[in-house]
């Protein structure tokens, strides 16, 4: 049988001697002491008794034990439905509950409702503490009892609120905070990964040994790039629930996505999934929740444990921050989304082509919005509909954070009919010149229909000629156009890593980019955040042999923190100005 997590007591001739409604009861000292011992083992207690609620409460308070019970069900009513109330209120499985009653009919009624529930008559009490099922685990502060007392208070408020469950959740002031210092809290995270079931969507377990589990975590985290991993703390107006969730997401797929059942039915799992940009979660086994749903009653704060800083000011929450870059921002984006309204402009795969936020696209926008330019885009089927959309063009953002890290991969092609040069990238081409790759070769290399026809490819071959692979002169002119469009805006520019990495050519390109971007940023009054402060050795890379483009999670966290500090100062200054 499973370990017991909750004991449900009958009262008359079980917890005490005698029958309350007949006027005479006697406390049983052993049972009263047992409540404290069980609570200190993390095992909670409830009541299912046919009595008058007020009378039973009065007697239990006189004995000094009323506060040891959670969700007491005391009424002149059938015991099966009352036990169901306890099961539903505690969110525990009946198999982890023990119902003690002196009446065999009541025990059988409980088993009728829940066949897996453990039941016993009062004779079990004499040896209960020696029974392995009641071993529990040390909880001298009775924290588990305290958490259920919080849940009990919420349950009462929920019943008092008129309307559906959403109204209750909206008044509960639920707050979550995202944290990334995994090693510091690894013991709790380890426990969550290996013990949670009902809200563990992926059910990937770790070894029980802590050191072995840490090694597995490190291996899992390094297998995909970009990857993020963090834990989630939760609180509401009723109390603080501590660390309740853990996630590991790489390449938009979740290796771990799990939550403690203590936050069940609060909408936390749905909220976090949406906040993390809805990664693919392969659900394993039974899970008692769906990730679908619109949750608008939860607030993200810096740290739910910090009462002095529980809420980010409305101005900061409404601040529109445009992150324009490649995998550096996809690795940092989740930090920003916890604080601001993020407008993400990241690489996009479309019809076998890679479209990145190249500076050339912004520079060519005006030409592509002429009648000839629009006709070119219409005839060239590979461009996505939102190809020219950018917060840089619309001016929608309050702050712009720019990374030019993807510029080393900019392949430049010139339109023969318009003279406009655009950046295009397709990893399945046989050569940079489109004429070097037949349609059949492209299909074979891609492995399936590339999303455009042979005649459309022939048009591409005729229309575009290869111009250059990252032309530094054109890049300088394009950066000037970009900065001129952002003149007067709050702009943060990342200084690229040009010292650490295995690819000397990329480091050289990054050095050339920095020698253009840094002086221009200073002229325009833009802020600079330098990767060089945090990338000092190969240990700071995503892997020791990385080209110098991808970095460790610690580097991304430090970069994001410095950027967010600038954003926060801007928010505070503007709030004062308003």
UniProtKB/TrEMBL annotation:
Record field: transmembrane: none
- InterPro entries for the chain: HAD-like_sf, HAD_sf, HAD_SF_ppase_IIIC
The source's superkingdom equals Bacteria
Q: What is this protein called?
A: HAD-IIIC family phosphatase
